[in-house]
Amino acid sequence: MKTYFGYLVLLVLVLLPLQIYAQQNASADELFAKARTAAFENKDYATSISLAKQALETAPDYTDISIFLGRVYTWNKDPESARAVFEDLGRKNIKDEDYFIAYASLEYWNDRYSEAKEIISKGLSSHPQSEALWLLKAKVEYADKNYIESEKAIKAVLAINPKNTEANSLAVRVHEFTYKNALSILYNYSHFDKQFDDDWHVVGLSYKRVTPIGAVIIRGNYANKFAEDGTQIELEAYPRLSKMFYLYVGGAYSNDVGLFPKYRTGVSLNANLPKSFEAEIGYRQLYFSKNIWMYTASVGKYYKNFWFNIRTYITPDNKNISHSYTGTVRYYTKSAQDYFGFQIGTGISPEENRNNLLENETFKLKTFKIGAEYNFSLKANMFSVGTMYYNQEYLPNQKGNQFDITLGYTRKF
Among 31, 194, 229, 260, which residue's Cβ finds the most Cβ atoms within 10 Å? Predict the structure, then answer.
């Protein structure tokens, strides 16, 4: 009997701490759940912080709650308190993937790129296949203007998950900066079944230079239209304003009015938005014998390997307002330079080589267009081929067809 009583006492002594620990964890979990609700649903960060602290008093070694507390301090714009939480976890030699992501995100959002990269490097040594850490590294390197390293990190993400939406979105932006120089040639051929007797030929030769504030492009265009020759010179720039915003600024001049507008200007504000959205709003101005003003807006979205975009041009005058709409879909294959594209729309765009038609106000007539393109790369060489079909009302109640073929080559160095 004594032996049995001894075993019973021993069992109680063993189970009692476990029961107390379980009760503590149960209480901590309840507080943790309430803290998450306060942060995610109510955006009440002060209450969430208070609840998380209470949970940690009950279960001080509950790592997930500590990481969460550091995140909430970050969201509450209290980086010093967040950093204190993460440094304490570091002293405990925590190796959780989420710890490295949360800590590096804090430093990234506060523009401390060297510190963020050091934390990410430690995280990747423990989690070399972490899709989230590689993506965060790509963002940090891009923000720090280390475009080659950012591109390497993007490739690591896409090797793990080729359909990562954010990586595909960032790849397109990084691609513009991975080489400082680019030479391009573009040829466009147009055939008309009724509207004009002669085919059109347009050749563009451009040089692009990436500067610390953004890309600058100078382009010369040669056109043979209506069996006449003409030239145009263009200058474009894409200055970066911040992580989110950049501008498009463009202008062109030609002495061969009719083949090209005499002057062309344009300015747009572009935004790289959260959730892999992007947007643009701006104007385009063409001058032949008088000014034509157009206002443009577009919305784009990356989803896995796809890019969707809708763009409109609105041209007001004294009598009415003309509208142009174009929808574009791209499917990216192995990189930002390799994709299939599809377009469909109505109306004439001033971005197209046929924009001289706007002088005669045919932009008010009905136009339907549909086309496709294929872009592919071989190391620093990029090739493109595209085709477009137009059905245009070139005179009231008179329609004709136009067939375009476009070929392009770019060499980056």
Answer: 260
- DSSP codes, 61-119: T-HHHHHHHHHHHHHTT-HHHHHHHHHHHHHTT---HHHHHHHHHHHHHTT-HHHHHHH
- Coarse DSSP helix, strand, coil percentages of the chain, rounded to the nearest 5 percent: 40, 40, 20
Contact 192, 408 (CB under 8 A): no
Q: What are phi and psi of 129, to 5 degrees?
A: -105, 25
The pLDDT tens digits along the chain (413 residues) read 545 545 444 444 544 454 444 444 558 999 999 999 999 999 999 999 999 999 999 999 999 999 999 999 999 999 999 999 999 999 999 999 999 999 999 999 999 999 999 999 999 999 999 999 999 999 999 999 899 999 999 999 999 999 999 999 999 999 888 889 999 999 999 999 988 999 999 999 999 999 988 999 999 999 999 999 999 999 999 999 998 999 999 999 999 998 999 999 999 999 999 999 999 999 999 999 889 899 999 999 999 999 999 999 998 877 778 889 999 999 999 889 999 999 999 987 776 655 445 555 545 668 899 999 999 999 899 999 999 999 988 788 888 999 999 999 999 99
CA distances to 25, 175, 321, 333, 410 from 380, in Å: 57, 11, 44, 17, 8
Start-to-end CA distance of the chain, whole Å, equals: 89
Among the listed residues 285, 281, 261, the one whose alpha carbon sits nearest the alpha carbon of residue 271: 281
The secondary structure of residue 169, as a DSSP letter, is: H
Which residues are 204's β-sheet partners? 186, 221
Residues 6+ apart with CB under 8 A from 218: 206, 207, 233, 234, 235, 236
The whole-model pTM stands at 0.81
Helix (H) or strand (E) holding 402, with range, is: strand 398-412
One-letter-per-residue 3-state SS of 332-397: ECCCCCCEEEEEEEECCCCCCCCHHHHHHCHHHCCEEEEEEEEEEEECCEEEEEEEEEEEEEEECC
- In this structure, what token pair is assigned to residue 53? 């602290």
- H/E segment holding residue 128: none
**CA-to-CA separations, 159 to 121, 202, 383, in angstroms, rounded:** 18, 40, 24
**Six-digit token pair at 297?**
């807006």
Tokens standing for residue 174: 């990084």
